[in-house]
Amino acid sequence: MLAADFATHQPKGLRKLILMGGLASVKLHIEAVQARLAELAQNIQATIRKYDEAHDYDAPEYKDACMVFYRRFMCRLDPWPEEVSLCVKRLEDPTVYRTMFGPSELRCTGNLRDWSVVGACHKIQASTLLINGFYDEIPESAAAPWFEEILQVKWRVLPESSHMGLWEERETWLKIMADFLGYKVTRSDASGLHPFKSLHPHSQH
Question: Looking at residue 67, what is its pLDDT?
Fold first, then answer.
């Protein structure tokens, strides 16, 4: 969100932009989340609605139901990589995350609740790569404005991924990034490596 907003101001020197699972509007994101929720079991939907209506976002039952959503639409690996677990744990942060976004990925009550760059995406002049997963919590409907408005844009969808394709389809993700950035992957088997550790420039400067 920050990078995209920054790019609309056409900063000098920005040549390439990567929007990975990026939403163009919080409103579109929340609408998409509701559609994703409808794909879950009725009891999970009911639990989320119950505690959402009561504004009781710290209830263990609410957190457990959100975790079902996360494991389906945020990262489908089992078990999760340690980095993913740490990332999701930070969603419980009562300070920055809750202030800026909200109590979970499913409910935006924070300062960003009205954030949108729809109608301003056309100002992005950098060559842009838009990438998300087929099962992403931010599906096509929430990402479409990027593709519709940015002049130089390429959109790739990872067929077996949700929101964290860099972990779910590591090698495919690395190749897409490398091709876009003009880098080369020096090892075909990137499992066990940090996503960026196997990328090396063609030449040293």
Answer: 95
Of the candidates 73, 102, 67, the one whose C-alpha atom is nearest the C-alpha of residue 88 is 67
Specify whether the CB–CB gap between 95 and 103 falls below 8 A. no
Q: Are 157 and 133 in contact (CB under 8 A)?
A: yes
What is the separation of C-alpha 102 from the centre of its chain, rounded to a whole number of angstroms?
16
Residue type, 136: D
Per DSSP, the three-state class of 180 is helix
Residues 83, 170: Cα–Cα separation, whole Å: 14
**Average pLDDT, integer, range 19-48:** 93
Location of structure tokens 């077996």: 160
Q: What is the pLDDT of residue 195?
A: 44
Residue pair 61/47 in contact (Cβ under 8 Å)? The answer is yes
Q: Which DSSP string corresponds to 110-153?
A: STTTT-B-TTTGGG--SEEEEEEETT-SS-HHHHHHHHHH-SSE
Tens digits of residue pLDDT in 163-188:
999 999 999 999 999 999 987 655 55
Whole-prediction pTM value? 0.83
